[in-house]
Automatic annotation (TrEMBL):
Family annotation (Pfam families): FGGY_C, FGGY_N
Sequence ranges assigned to domain Carbohydrate kinase FGGY N-terminal in this UniProt record: 8-245
All residue ranges annotated as the Carbohydrate kinase FGGY C-terminal domain in the record: 256-447
Protein origin, superkingdom: Bacteria
Enzyme class at the top of the EC tree: transferase
UniProt organism field: Bacteroides sedimenti
Family under the similarity heading: Belongs to the FGGY kinase family.
Protein's UniProt name: Rhamnulokinase
Keyword Nucleotide-binding (UniProt): yes
């Protein structure tokens, strides 16, 4: 196997990176080239992403490669899900895209369910009902007489939009499209009933392609700006979670995964979608994975809770994650618990106040110090993971023997041990760079350097170190779980 380098762009809701992946001799090596912030921009009550700033950061990363004369075989972009860019007939981006944190979708699902019942929408798409899914974003734009929608010729999901800005070519990659709640996972096509509801012709979206498809080559303009030649851009698993799941270092199928970052995505890998009354009641999602697999999982609010608190604490003191973890370890156990998924935590003015208010309303001790608040977040996350695992265990067609925690959150050893204790199974933590690794591996597959997801996973197992956490303190965590279920409220 010859050494080949690939360029991955991995964009999360709070930060982004460009990464160089070197695949050689059955192993993979990563080097971060650039890291930058992704800012949620609020203007007159709406929340946007700056798609031009993100594109500019990709150009910066490519310039770095060019300066160092590193030959890259291809480029791949992955991002968070559901958001999209509208493009006019002249090929121009019509305005910066809304962020899924924009409140314009609040109440939208319930309005749509008056026209198509909730059960039917779930049955058609198999996607967890969350008010920010593209389906409801588009319905909100329509309801608010968006000036953009009537002049929209094409809708591009974020990774496809960036690939378009790099190449001028349009595709709709399947894993990212599946997050929209517009795709029927059985037919693997946009659902005509939902397109009709939104009055959008099928041609508003590009041709559906699967991870590993070439989108095009760098446009002349990008070549001029970077000094690179006609490097191909590959549609990887454009949804960050799909790229991350592809990189789970699992030797067999008996596992659940938890992709831990701003969000916690917890699920199992299935050969087929699992859509029935039970999955509907559990409100589990069936998103597209690599090689035709289904990511049967739950989207849980993750490190967002702490990220937002940290921003508030930064006004008075700059606590590092190590500071927060140390303080949490010293704080009393199971004193205050929250449902991380309650709607009050979606985008509150103050996360600290929202957490305190939740605890007060549920008649618990109100956490005051940063250690207490951090502990409340970690314990509550571990306990909601248990709730989710119990649901997964009921329906999984295999026994779940361990949980693989991947993504940035897998570096949090305190949360990893809480999770192992809460779940009562072994937790295998790492790689923290799973998304970038999956992105690079899919480019390597497109280049013919690796042949299958299984081979990819074997290479990842050989290249990275993982940390294993065995469960302890069963009785204490069982009691904690009972306390959690008592205060588990949807809306506060
Ligand atoms: C994670 C993620 C989740 C999706 C959320 C919003 O980064 O992609 O899978 O539900 O962001 O798009």
């Amino acid at each position: 196997m010859k050494n080949t380098s690939f360029f991955a762009v991995d964009l999360g809701a709070t930060s982004g990176r460009t990464i160089l992946g070197m695949v050689k001799e059955g192993s993979i090596e990563l080097r971060e080239l650039t890291r930058f912030q992704n800012n949620l921009i609020e203007v007159n009550g709406h929340f946007y992403w700056d798609i031009y700033a993100l594109y500019h950061e990709i150009i910066n990363g490519l310039n770095q490669v060019s300066k160092e004369k590193i030959p890259i075989a291809s480029i791949g972009v992955d991002t968070w899900g559901v958001d999209f860019v509208c493009v006019g007939k002249d090929g121009e981006i019509l305005r910066n895209p809304y962020s899924y944190r924009d409140p314009h979708t609040i109440g939208l699902p319930e309005e749509l369910f008056k026209r198509i019942p909730r059960e039917d929408i779930y049955q058609m798409t198999g996607i967890q009902i969350m008010n920010f899914n593209s389906l409801y974003q588009l319905a909100a734009m329509k309801k608010n007489s968006s000036s953009v929608l009537p002049v929209t010729d094409k809708i591009l999901f974020t990774p496809d939009a960036l690939s378009y800005m790099l190449t001028g070519e349009i595709v709709t990659e399947y894993t990212i499209a599946s997050t929209s709640q517009l795709i029927n996972p059985i037919k693997k096509e946009f659902e005509p009933v939902l397109l009709e509801l939104l009055e959008l012709p099928r041609k508003t979206f590009g041709k559906l392609v699967y991870p590993g498809t070439k989108v095009g080559i760098l446009s002349k303009s990008v070549q001029m700006q970077t000094g690179l030649s006609s490097v191909p851009v590959i549609a990887v698993a454009g949804h960050d979670t799909a790229s991350a799941v592809a990189a789970v270092p699992a030797p067999d199928k008996n596992f659940a995964y938890l992709s831990s970052g701003t969000w916690s995505l917890m699920g199992i890998e299935l050969e087929q979608p699992f859509i029935n009354e039970e999955s509907f009641k559990m409100n589990f999602t069936n998103e597209g994975g690599v090689e035709g697999t289904t990511r049967f999982m739950k989207t849980i609010c993750g490190m967002w809770l702490l990220e937002r608190c940290r921003k508030e604490w930064a006004m008075v003191a700059d606590y590092s994650y190590t500071d927060l973890i140390e303080a949490a370890m010293k704080a009393p156990a199971f004193r205050s618990l929250i449902n991380p998924d309650a709607s009050c935590f979606a985008n509150p003015v103050s996360m600290i106040e929202a957490i305190k208010h939740y605890c007060k309303t549920t008649e618990q001790a109100v956490p005051e110090t940063y250690g207490e608040i951090t502990r409340c977040i970690f314990e509550s996350l571990a306990l909601i993971y248990r709730y989710t695992l119990e649901n997964l265990k009921r329906v999984a067609p295999f026994s779940i023997e361990r949980l693989h925690v991947i993504g940035g959150g897998s570096k949090n050893n305190l949360l990893n041990s809480f999770t192992a204790n809460a779940l009562g199974i072994k937790v295998v933590a790492g790689p923290s760079e799973a998304t970038a690794i999956g992105n690079i591996m899919l480019q390597a597959k497109a280049a013919g350097v690796v042949s299958s997801i299984q081979q990819m996973r074997e290479m990842i197992c050989a290249s990275i170190d993982v940390n294993v956490f065995e469960p302890v303190e069963k009785d204490i965590w069982d009691e904690g779980y009972v306390a959690f279920l008592k205060v588990f409220r949807e809306n506060i």
